[in-house]
Structure prediction request, 331 residues.
Amino acid sequence: MNKKELAAALSPDTDPAPFFALADKVRRERVGDAVHLRGLIEFSNHCRRNCFYCGIRRGNAGVRRFRLDAERILDCARTAAALKYGSVVMQSGEDLSWGTAELAGVVERIKVETGLAVTLSVGERSREDYRALRAAGADRFLLRFETSDRRLFAMLKPDSDYDERFRCLAWLKEAGFQVGSGVMTGLPGQSLESMADDILIFKELELDMVGIGPFIPSPGTPLAGAPAATLESALRMVALTRIVTGNAHMPATSAMGAIDPNGRQKALRCGANVLMPNVSPVEHRADYSLYPGKICVSEAPERCGACVDAMLESLGRVRAEGPGHSLKAAA
Ligand code: SAH
Prediction:
């Protein structure tokens, strides 16, 4: 599909049903019925950035800041292993107090102790830092470019640089990571054309993983009063991204679950093949609020495991075995 076709398919005036059906078919044929479970560890909400959309932005004084130490992170990884998840995702704000060497040490320990695949989502660092984290054994890295619209990016991320963000993605690939990126949908001022470009860029970057979520206005941020995205805008992006990228791993994101109790289920039926259950300590979950209405803030991890299994069963899907590595290299 070209840009014009994608933009038309993204329009609220177009019936999405045919795209959703096609995306589900492509998903079944290219990645199968198994759903990969990645245990999410939210390990620090300290952040040096001031992104307009994000609840844990530096300038939000209402946030109770926390930082898990290495032992606590290890505990979360052990929980993920006990629940038979294939990998963990360590996510945080851009917290440079977690130095790259310390972070590398934790990655190494998780790999040695649990054997799980490790994904990092810690924002922008230097080329050398990325190399060191990869050398420590981290398998994957998630870094959304958030929007391909330069002007919108500059407005939403006043202390980040668009070109630097893409340079980071190139460095990650060069360092040998399986690389994930993605965007939010329904951002204030976001055009359908820029969203079509987002999808074409996913393809061009040959991403191993693509994460897409609806924008949800967060209290304590400059966009607190902006309208929320529709779930459908995110589902359209997921479906079209599946059709265009073929075998990228794509999560049914928590933000989808936050704006619609069946949001993740719907995403799994129009292209998504990954879920990221939270394995973070319950006492800090509410403090890691990128947006309001976060799901599973008080569920013990064990209950999330059972809940996810029930969800998969209701959809006629199964849990994937193993770490769930990229399908790109194998293809
Ligand atoms: N600091 C890391 C991790 C970011 S948090 C980084 O910069 O990569 C993970 C993702 O949450 C972000 O990339 C963003 O797309 C999403 N997010 C942040 N605020 C949000 C909001 N208000 N609504 C929906 N998604 C949001």
